[in-house]
Each structure stands twice: as C-alpha cells, then as structure tokens.
Amino acid sequence: MDQELFRLLNRVDDPEECEAPAEFDLEAEVNAVRNLILPLNELVGRDFVLNDRIEDAPFFAELSIIDWTTNPSGGKDGNGIISLRFSAFGRLFIVWSPCPQYKKLDPRVIEQVIDLVRRSGYVYVDAEALVEPYEGGNPALKGRYTWWGRYFDWF
To answer: Which conformational region is residue 45 in: left (phi greater than 0), alpha (psi within -120 to 50 degrees), or beta?
Structure first.
C-alpha cells in the first residue's frame, strides 16, 4: 500500500469506535450525500439511488445506479453499474461496480464523478488499494478485516 494512503487511513482511524467516530453527525452527512444526487444525475445522465439505511457498518450511505434484470423465477435482481460508498471516517469515499465490464460507465465519466464528489469535500480512496490486512489502531478490528472492511463493508 502506498505510504501516503496508509498515513491517511491511520489518521482518520479511531482506536475505540468501529462504526463511526463519536463526533460523526449522521444526519448532516446523509444530507450532504443527498445533495450530490442531482449534480451526479445531470453529469452521468442516469439516476442515482441513495441507500442511507446502513447498519452495523463503518459506512453510512451508498449512491448507486442500478441495473435491474429479471431472474428466471420472475423476480428482480439489481447490480450496481456504479456505486459510491461513503465512510463515517474522514469523509472517505470509494467507487466500485460489481456489474459486468460491458455495462460499466466509461472511465472518463467515472473520473468526472470522482472529481465532482471531491469538490464537495470528500476524499477519494481507490477501492483496489484497500485489500491489505487492517493494521490500524483499533484492537477490536486487527487481524479480522482488510482496510476495505475497516471503512467500507458490513461487520
């Protein structure tokens, strides 16, 4: 892992709190993420959906463009064409996509999305850089998670 990223991840870490630092203002942060929806929709030309019902996790919100398909039993399955996940720590965010490559957004558009969110005060972290074991200051998480798990996954 890049040393600058390692320092950043450690700087925003909390040695006691796992899901959010004590000073985290959930309502204000959800509103800030909600305010990104319209400019992102206009930029990408598609609708982002907000999931702010996150529990038992160090992230509090996710904005996604969902690709809905019908499964063999007639139900609906959704994959994120693009998802932006927001950590409760340090205003970090990642961009990721579980959908097939041919459905993903153009990388130039993804860069514009990242830039727009950064201009709103968030700190972009490359999700692929977070696969290493967590070596931060929270003893409850050491040896159990990667850096991705520390900031962007459910416990």
So the answer is: left
Token pair of 56 as six digits: 């038992």
Give 71's Cβ-side CA count (13 Å radius): 6
Res 69: pLDDT:
83
Residue whose pair of structure tokens reads 């702010």 in the numeric block: 52
The whole-angstrom separation of Cα 88 and Cα 24 is: 7
| DSSP letter, residue 139 | T
* Residues 122 and 86 sit within 8 Å (Cβ to Cβ): yes
**Residues 147 and 130: beta-carbon distance below 8 Å:** yes
**8 A C-beta contact, residue 105 and residue 40:** no
Helices (H) and strands (E) counted in the chain, each on its own, are: 5, 5
| Threshold 0.85, pTM exceeds | yes
In sequence order, the 6+-apart residues with CB closer than 8 A to the CB of 100 are: none
Residue 119's H or E segment, with its range, is helix 107-119
